[in-house]
Specification:
The protein is α+β, with helices and mostly antiparallel strands. The chain contains 1 helix and 5 strands; from the N terminus they run ββββαβ. The chain has a 5-stranded antiparallel β-sheet, covered by helices on one side. A hairpin with a 2-residue loop joins strand 1 and strand 2.
């Protein structure tokens, strides 16, 4: 699943993906930098799925739209 956020002229994507037995949460910025967090369990994944957008909203990011692939 991928979410898209904007803040002024800046854009970023936030993606949840599976990598073997792990779940990866990847925030990709327009400048090419990325941060990836790996978690092992669905419970940890759900915790992060709630925390990441809250942190982005607090930092002034706003959702553009969501797309599921």
């Amino acid at each position: 699943m991928t979410w898209f956020f904007s803040r002024g002229d800046e854009r970023l994507t936030w993606e949840v993906r599976r990598s073997g037995a792990l779940y990866e949460l990847c925030v990709q910025r327009a400048d090419g930098t990325a941060s990836i967090q790996s978690v092992e369990t669905p419970r940890e994944l759900l915790d992060h799925i709630h925390q990441i957008p809250r942190a982005l909203l607090t930092d002034g990011w706003r959702p553009v739209h969501a797309a599921q692939f």
